[in-house]
Amino acid sequence: MRSIIDDLKQKIVDLVSSGVDIEGLKNQLRQTESRDPNHVYGSEIEAMEKSLHEGRIEEARIHRQEAISARNCLPQFNFEGLWIGKYGDHGFEMINITYVGDIMIAKKVTGDKNVPAGEITFQVDLSPPPTLSDSSLRPVSKPLENIILSEDAAKRWGTSQIARYQGLGQVAEEGFASHQWVDGQMVIINEEYFSFSWMPMNHQIFFGRPSPELSLKMLRESRSHRQPTIEDDFDTLKEHVTRCFEVTTADFDDEKVDGKDNPFSCIYHDDDDTCSFE
């Protein structure tokens, strides 16, 4: 939808100085924008802020209701809850997504020696692009261009383009030392899968919804006991070895999750067997 709107805007710009009647194109643009939830959300937010700024409280309330209705139709604002992704050598980890305004916050439920549980792993700015001529009431960041998929990838995922958004990813040394934020990008594949990339490291993780059974399994494992020592009794050592064996076996079966093909291990393999998009 966004590409259609951009094309119509470009046609209007190209024809505006030629003397050609562009009213038909303008009507087509308005109709298309009214069907685009992202555009409606942005325009209603701006209209609400403008109404508040001018003291028109009742109008602002109506614009707010319209903005909420449009926002509920946008997939990027419906990712709340638990997701899992494979953090390289650290294995599968679980995150919980919440929202603070238009900022998506992804916090680790299970962590690792670098970024532990309870810390934010990434955050994404989902603020809609400006739509009104007076957009000085809020900061503006230029939206990222959609990723154009190859014909084969488009058939597989049921879309020719996938949206991406700017964000920040957290990195740290062991023990959460020297933690810092780096530039990142979130790519929304559909309502079931997305990826986040830590851009300076060229590190991309794909996320999918876990089943209830897998969620419980990962939560139980995250509360596992300390590493045993030689002073522990035989039963404690036996339990630890059994648990390690189960985890190792699961790692060998890396292409399976809950007995099914792992859908978020990779979207596309390059020649060097790294995950990326076509």
Q: Got a strand count?
A: 11
CATH architecture of the largest domain: Beta Barrel
- By CATH reckoning, the class of the largest domain would read Mainly Beta
Largest sheet: spatial strand order: 1-2-3-4-6-7-8-9
The helix-strand sequence is HHHHEEEEEHEEEEHHEE
Task: State the end-to-end distance.
Answer: 21 Å
Q: Sheet bearing the most strands, described? A: 8 strands, antiparallel, barrel
How many domains? The number is 2
The count of helical stretches stands at 7
> β content, as a range?
25-35%
Q: What's the oligomerization state?
A: single chain
Rg from Cα: 23 Å
**Overall pLDDT metric:** 76
CATH fold label of the largest domain: Lipocalin
Given as residue ranges, the uncertain stretches (5+ residues, pLDDT < 50) are 133-139, 244-278
Structural class, by secondary structure, is alpha+beta
Question: Helix proportion of residues, in percent?
Answer: 25-40%
Main features:
globular; eight-stranded antiparallel barrel; alpha+beta; 2 domains
If you had to describe this structure to a student in words, what would you say it looks like?
The protein folds into 2 domains: 70 residues, no CATH class; 143 residues, Beta Barrel (Lipocalin), CATH 2.40.128. Helices cover 34% and strands 25% of the residues. It is built from 7 helices and 11 strands. The strands form 2 sheets. The protein has an 8-stranded antiparallel β-barrel. A hairpin with a 5-residue loop joins β1 and β2. α1 runs antiparallel to α2. It is globular, with a radius of gyration of 23 Å. It starts with a helix and ends in a 17-residue tail after the last strand. The C terminus is likely disordered.
